[in-house]
Amino acid sequence: MNAGQLAGFVLANLCGMTIVLAAIQFATDIIPMFTGSDSFMKPGQMVMAKHVSTVRTLTGKAPTFTAEEIDDVRKQSFVSNVGTFTPSLFSVVATLGSQRLGVQFSTEMFFEAVPDEFIDVDLSHWKWQEGDEEVPIILPRNYLNLYNFGFASSQGLPALSESLVSMVKIRFYLRGTADRRELSGHVVAFSKKLNTILVPQHFMDVMNAKLSPNRQPEPSRLIVTVSNPADEQIDKFLKSNSYETEADDAEAARTAYFLRIIISIVLVVGLIISALAFYVLLLSIFLLLQKNTEKIDNLLLIGYSPQAVARPYHLLTISLNTLVLILSIVIVLSLRSYYLPLFGQLYPSFSASSLTPALFTGLALYLLVGILNYVAIRRKVLSVWHLHEH
After folding, report:
1. Where are the beta strands (DSSP E) in the chain?
2. In angstroms, rounded to a whole number, what is the distance separating the alpha carbons of residues 88 and 121?
3. For residues 34-58, average pLDDT
4. CB 344, CB 350: distance < 8 Å
5. How many CB atoms lie under 10 A from the CB of residue 342?
């Protein structure tokens, strides 16, 4: 094997190994950013509601979902999970400030609840038990953006950070058809996907039962998890039933789906290139052994063992594979040093993942190829040795 053949193998193998390791490391780094609190890499989630038409408005028919309609959604082939937005059956008045200080703000608002598995934020502080006098609240992030970049800037008021808003205690006055309740609350997180004011599901169930026991909540929106957001059956189902989804949900879900496809394609291409490069190495080693059959036979005749004859070829393949693995890791680290700062600029809370998956994959491929090379070389040398014996 001349220097050109060695260089060609190293280059081809390096390309394949680098693509595989880079794709795995990129996926490892980027997926937590989208599967964490503000995920759109999770299986596609979309908020589904009925279309509010003029006829529906004039007839006074509420755009709510019946149990049969929810079951129909759940039975669709593209749906993997369905949750409902539970509305509050009581009025809510929120108060900030104090009359003693001469500054007090009050506003009417509403609460909704969804099952915890559909919430896209950290739920470590999302707890409420009956008897607690303070309830956690999750606000939409765009509410804060509207205040900071719309209302506050036009009124000359200071912008508020998420951490500052989370420190503020809010007084809530709840009034239903049968009872009323007063308690405090605070914002524990801001959701990017759910455009509503959320309280824990258990809190909503308890308060609805106590404050308005003679009424039953009727969900006007569903939160649906779909296995394939690009499935054309989704649009057909929505149109046939006059349902709507928020545009951001559908687009984000499709983007996540295609991003997963692209990462998978890159991995497959890298594996194919690696496999071809490894095959080229095996073929080159085999041809080298075939070319040197006479020399191998002479070495065996003068008393060298098959292991001693095969050792230089083993060392050659191990050296080349080690070089490829090290260079691939160095290239992946260089690429990673380029894109990690970009992720940090897009998401200030982003934290890089470990190199373990890429390193483990690289070592696994290294060992696999090493074993295949060892077996191929050993079988060739032993075949020559057996011929010599006979």
Report:
1. 45-50, 79-84, 86-87, 91-98, 103-109, 112-113, 134-140, 170-175, 180-191, 221-226, 243-245
2. 21
3. 63
4. yes
5. 10
330: closest CA among 27, 1, 18?
Answer: 18
> Residue 213 is encoded by which pair of tokens?
């026991």
- Are the CB atoms for 245 and 48 separated by under 8 Å? yes
373-387 burial code (b ≥16 CB/10 A, e <16): beebbeebbeebbee
In whole angstroms, what is the distance from residue 52 CA to residue 243 CA? Answer: 9
Residue 338: pLDDT band (50, 70, 90) is confident
The pLDDT confidence band at residue 40, using thresholds 50, 70 and 90, is very low
Instruction: Let me know: does 357 contact 263? Beta carbons within 8 Å.
Output: no
pLDDT on residue 318: 85
Closest Cα to residue 201, out of 118, 318, 263, 272? Answer: 118
Question: Does residue 295 or residue 65 have the better pLDDT?
Answer: 65
134-140 and 180-191 beta bridge pairing:
parallel
Residues 222 and 46: their CA atoms lie apart, in Å, by 8
Q: Model pTM?
A: 0.56
Structure tokens at 222: 């569903």
DSSP 8-state symbol, 88: P
Q: How far apart are CA 70 and CA 49, in angstroms?
A: 11
